[in-house]
Fold each of these.
Amino acid sequence: MSRIVYVNGRYVPYGEAQIHVEDRGFQFADSVYEVCEVRAGRIIDEPRHLARLERSLNELRIDRPMSDACLRIVLSEVLRRNRVREGLVYLQVTRGIARREFVFPDPPVAPTLVVIARHVPASKGDAAAQQGIGVVTTPENRWQRVDIKTTALLPNVLAKMQAKENDAREAWFIDRDGYVTEGGSSNAWIVTQNGVLVTRPAESGILRGVTRTTLFDLARREGLTIEERPFTIDEAKSAMEAFISSATTLATPVIRIDGAPVGDGKPGPVVASLRKGFHLIAEWRAI
Ligand code: PLP
């Protein structure tokens, strides 16, 4: 069965899908996106992803391509047509097609909407979580509006490439004051020697991860203490555990930072229990 993607009102074979050369997503990264986990034929935490999409669109004054109800139908349909029951669904909205001018098109043009589904076996993430991952650190060099989930991801691409070249899976950005902001495509956490969860406040220098928010719900339910504050790399290296969170990795333990072990250099029990409990508390929607 060939893969099918959704582009501006049509479901088309992957190899035939096209975007206009003057799409502003292509020329200016004038576009936003979301990635949702798909598990057992269900979309995980869809309401939170759609709420964040709405926020990103509003912040950039991009028109909605369609209502949430219609968007949910398109997401389901792309998953159904590709028979994806485990993996992810990606959606991107650009400001649309217009002659290349920096300012917004006037009158406004219709936004572009693309939806892609991909099968990824859950066992892949579980294997990484069993083993734990390494991260490298890199100076924060992104713009200040990283709270908006835009496709302007070149610093993230370069940071993650640096990670790959150093045998690591993620890069943690470090701000001017020496604090970790977040990963190239994930939020960053530590568990202190006292068992307190620490992660940076979403108001400063990070994307408010949907997985992060759901982990807050879970941690509260499990009676864990959370401190929303920045932490340094030294603090992370001497923490009991460290981990990343995102829709595609869930909570995945970090066992090495710039080659130095975190704690005893093995995945710890706190992140294991958060990972295990995640789907009990996340919202599921049948496709
Ligand atoms: N931070 C960044 C920069 C990201 O790109 C992502 C996900 O792609 C996250 C955090 C985690 O967000 P979520 O949990 O919604 O996937």
Note: The domain at 4-120 is CATH 3.30.470.10 (D-amino Acid Aminotransferase; Chain A, domain 1).
Amino acid sequence: MITAGKTSFRLDTEHTTYLIRKTKYGHLEHVYYGNLLDKEDDVEALAQKRSIMVGSSVLYSKDDDVYSLDSMCLEWSDNGRGDYRHSPTEFKMPDNSFVTDFVYENHEVVEGSVPMENLPTAYGGDKTLKITLKDKAYPIFIDLYYTVFEKTNVISRRAVVRNEGNAPITMKRIMSISMDMPDECFQMYTLDGGWIKEANLHKRPASYGITMNSSTTGASSNRHNPAFLLAEADANEDYGSVYAFNMIYSGNHYSIVEKNERDYVRVCMGINPHLFEWVLSPGEKFETPECVMSYSSQGFNGTSHHMHDLINEHIIRGDYKKKERPILLNNWEAHFFAFNEGKLLRLAKDAKKLGIELFVLDDGWFGERNNDKAGLGDYKVNPKKLPEGMKAFADKIRNLGLDFGLWFEPEMVNENSDLYSSHPEYAIKLQNRSSVFGRNQLVLDLCQKEVRDYIVKQVSSILDEAEISYVKWDMNRHIAEAFSKALQNQGEFYHRYILGLYEVLKRIFEPRPHILLESCSSGGNRFDLGMLCFSPQIWTSDDTDPIERIKIQTGLSYFYPQSTLGAHVSEAPHQQTLRETPLATRFHAACFGCLGYELDLKYLTPEQRKDIAEQIAFYKQYRKIFQYGSFYRIKSYKPNKVIWETVSEDKETALTGFFQILATAAESSDKLKVIGLKKGRYTIRTRPQKLYVERFGGLIKHVAPVELNPDGVIMRVANRHYSLKDCVETYTCSSEALAAGIPLCEQFIGTGYHDKVRMLGDFGSNMYITEKENIQQK
Ligand code: DGJ
């Protein structure tokens, strides 16, 4: 709900209130953002008081010694009028100064969300408030848009600048949001990393001065995801004040948190001003990306639920919104570039037998792409690999009863390619410098219309010809040497690139809503809300080692729901970390996302095949809850445990993954808490899992009736064909008992093994199914 009074604006979601007021000089003051207020609550009581002059302040009016912009909580702010904090704008005005003074001009409230011309937005909002500010000296306007998503407890904000004067202005910085709040000893949480170590959560105090979270690589990046949290110092998963912010944008982003000497904290978020410059001519307007914010006093799980609901309800669009995602097999880690039709069909047949639903052919199917040095840009099937062409191959896959998906990297080109030979001018590079390379490739210049048209034509024709139902859209290098021959002003480059990308995605995929798009950028190098407006899921990371994935998926879970995370089971020892992990743990980590497998199935033992077939059947049974359930990070008092839970929409079923990182000697007993369920009686049980003979190593000789060499032929054969059963526990109890925690059977500590001992060791895990008594299925 939005209530616009004479001098104040109140935005309510189901559980939160956001309050703004207009000061007597027309500036917008931020009054409150927090739990839902009583409808009688008024702005005067909640606003910061201005009752004394602050020493060494610059006054806005010489007759008003308590009105200094520097000592106020503002909703928008300027340069050169006495506020010395970071301003959301840096405009060179027609008088060549950087001084602006934007004050209230008018406002309107409209139904629903207001779409943008060139940028993706969250859709289906309840109401939108538009407050227009005007500079006091020039007819330059800023429209501040606030859209309320009541049920999901999210408010989105963005700004549009309009030049209605007769001289251009130069924008060096234009943020989407700015907001000041009194400090609560805020801690800032960000998701940082790099290739194969994306989205690790980091915490730091938002202390005096500026704390920044930004990217400069041309994408939202694996270095620093755009999303961040501000939380009171004592907040934890279930309690405490938490603000969450994210941005619907895939390019260079920028957020600052600035604490000033009055202990006010400013949050600004928008396009990164680094290398940005935009000239706004008379009659032109500039749209900034939409940012989304949420508040919860229920800790991190609280804001996560809001953000997850927002994404599932208002970001993901098209045929795959709320739809269960197929279990896929991707051939990349099985083959890399070395495959032919025979190898692919064998893999697909094996996949089908295990219950896989979608076969994805990754890199290497086109041009001279036999390694990563050639072929990018030439999307013509390599006849040595697929002699009858893509359509014939896709039909063969479909005849096996599988859907068919294909990999592309449309934004890139290799120098060694037909495309580069015929159109070197399509690549981003400078004539007076030698090129810099990433993975042997150059980036195509999406600022050029010819390049966008080329990509749309190439990709679309294969999609239609081979009736593709899934696309993996990859992007494997950072942008450098930002320069486009299509631009007069190179300060526009990075933003224009992203506008070009969105245009291409729209042109290809909007007319083909049946295609499931999975975006990828060396894994999670472009994991953001902008891409999620086009691709319902994103390849989370090239790292499928479950122990690393636990960190990555935990980090992302603060902002992104499981339905958006591509999560695959791959080989062990793992291809990037060399870590040996149980198959069960690889599966359990991948369950809390969109499950896939990425390994050469022909090397599986008969026992592993049975195991995987059971895993897939189990996932299918609970897929909706794994992909769309309410996700909880369960607090563990032991540092070597990670516990994830997902609860069904009716709150009658919960699935809990219990992961042990490094085992400690003589592990003490563990407790399993299951929260978020409806009141009632439940049965909780362990998913039965296989315990491979090899896991016991030399211990086996103590339990076998005859002495066996642990590395001998008999044991190796036994490991291929047999496994032991891991401990299965079943209890019946109330939702209250589950919330308090059920003590589990003891772990193996070297003093004996039987069926009531949990065999976890390093990297072990269990999955628990909790179901309301009347719906217990097995
Ligand atoms: C990077 C991706 O993240 C991988 O999954 C794979 O598709 C390779 N690119 C292929 O080159």
Note: The first strand starts at residue 2 and ends at 4.
